[in-house]
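Hi L.,

As promised, Acyl-coenzyme A thioesterase 13:
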Amino acid sequence: MGMGMAMGMEEQETAAREWLESIIAKSQSQDAAGEAVWKGGFFDSLSLSDLRISRLQVGQALCSFRVPAHLTDGEGNWQAGAIATVMDDVGAAAIMTTEGLIKISVQFDISYFSPARANEEVEIDARILEHKGGRRLTAVVVEIRKKGNGQIVAVGRQWMTSGRPLHSNL
């Protein structure tokens, strides 16, 4: 049994929720613009500042997000890099619900279909597709849709590999 298998599924879902919530909380700290940049995680927290967790269950993370103006380009469209950051972190949370590990992206493909604008509400749905190499590699697909009409904003597929254990006692 791998390290992630030692945790129960409920514990893994809780760990995924706590991990996402810690990133969101970082954006609200007064240190977010200073020392946090050099400690890592600042850009994740900047891009996830308004993320709301709707559901975490085995193999899936479902979140909603109102696109903040500070993550848009000169035309008011949600920036591609900020979209990629949200997809990467919500995809990692979906994997954490089954693995109990923070995984690292080794391949990430994103197709952008339609822009989301400042203050527009979107839904991010990340689901595990498959595992390879004894669960060492995990594929996840992440879809972002506009909440109002279901229009696809972007679809990403990524492979992630084992990182470090979330809990040192595993």
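The longest strand covers residues 152-165.

Thanks again for sending the construct details.

K.
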